[in-house]
Amino acid sequence: MAAKHSDTRGKRSQRQYVPVQSAQPPHADPPLSLERIVTTAVELLDAEGVDGLKMRRLADRLGAGAMSLYWHVGSKEEVFDLALDLVIEYSGRPQVFEPEDWRDEAVHLLQDWRASMLRHPWSASLLSRRALGPNILNRLELLGKILSRAGVADADLNVAIWSLWNYVMGATITRASFDLSEDDRTAAQQRITRLSEHYPTIERSRLLLDSDWDGAFRKGLDFLLDGLAPGQKSCSR
Amino acid sequence: MAAKHSDTRGKRSQRQYVPVQSAQPPHADPPLSLERIVTTAVELLDAEGVDGLKMRRLADRLGAGAMSLYWHVGSKEEVFDLALDLVIEYSGRPQVFEPEDWRDEAVHLLQDWRASMLRHPWSASLLSRRALGPNILNRLELLGKILSRAGVADADLNVAIWSLWNYVMGATITRASFDLSEDDRTAAQQRITRLSEHYPTIERSRLLLDSDWDGAFRKGLDFLLDGLAPGQKSCSR
DNA sequence: GATTGCATCGTACGGCGTACGAGTCAATTG
DNA sequence: CAATTGACTCGTACGCCGTACGATGCAATC
Q1: Domains detected in chain B
Q2: Please, what sign has the CA dihedral across residues A189, A193, A198, A202?
Q3: Which residue numbers delimit the DNA-binding region (chains A, B) (predicted)?
Q4: Strand C–CB A5 distance below 7 A
Q5: Is the CB of A26 under 7 A from strand D?
Q6: Nucleotides of C under 7 A from a protein CB
């Protein structure tokens, strides 16, 4: 009754995934569904970027009317949240692992997290939206388990998880926004060298010109893990 | 001539800051200027958030017509870039410092960076926009100098700067989006405990409920600095 | 056959960014 | 002093957006 303003219309109940197949579709196209909407939204986002996702175009791709989406989704914002959560799905590592493999396990999970998002660069720009979908929570839970097994005390888990999350998200968003095209790179080159009297150190480090993103990510990650989890692979390596 | 599509109109030349004061303003309000536009944009962003910044409202606040802004700015995107750069201004540390103080210096610069952005939470959501304004470059240059003085080799500077940048930006964006209000916190509480069978570790760590953001930031930062810069404050502390 | 509830969609509204071109006024030029 | 120029302002209008609303259609149920 006094619902905010969203649920005035019905909405597909979030109970089970009942594969109910209706007798025949109302049109030639398959019927709408949350899954279809979200996967198509990801396609559209991949193709056109964040600004390219418009409800009308999404509906077009689905062979549906624009307003039909709102039976399933509630708002465009919700589409973003669901799409972001979808690309973060994680199936875990295939093989079982030894107890001492926690570190490889953690690195794999975090590298894969970043890689998943970089496969869909638009996802990095949605990071500021406080979405905690099931897939994100799954990853966090798994990360917590790994750290726990590595000997991190419960009291320190909070800090460890957040530090790693922060680092991974920062690395993702930076890479997604600063991985310049060839043209951009030469432009940046010129700009920096033109201002080189003001920014000599930046120029010397070739910060924007040939960064080894993945290597840098891995290295910083190692340092963080060294500090956050005790023992094993001491920092005197 | 073959300019993209933006500079078809004139635009305040970016030469010097000539404090040319015209004889009398065309209206009672002070005349428009890039500075006035950007500072007012920051005010509006502080008050209304990212979605609250509309060209018409910005113009209203300035006592001007909406289209007058476009003489000075070129597009709304540019306003965002300029506003982001403005809040990142850094005047460096007041006192001079000893050569061995590099670590305090670095921590101060990075903590202040994060604090500056948290003072304007909208700025975190603009991080994905590849803006390298002068103030951001200044900070990066200063950070590079500090690390250089700490003994980081030129070849490692790139990695060190990016690792720190990534961590700081991640911590900022996370804190800005996940620092929940009291209501949100209890809602999250309920949600997590309801799903506690799926996420026992997250629940145990009280991840969203009482995180010590600033402490966690500081701790992770220390670990990164331990790894990135050799010597001093060894990891056996 | 009537009712109910799920699902779809056409229309329309208000608001957005901004292109365009006409206006104003100070400084410059002859 | 008149004419011209160029820096700056702004009213209007266009196209597009998200989505509220209400009218449908259709399957299952009574």
Answers
A1: 34-87 (1.10.10.60), 99-182+196-228 (1.10.357.10)
A2: positive
A3: 54-73
A4: no
A5: yes
A6: 5-11, 15-21, 24-27
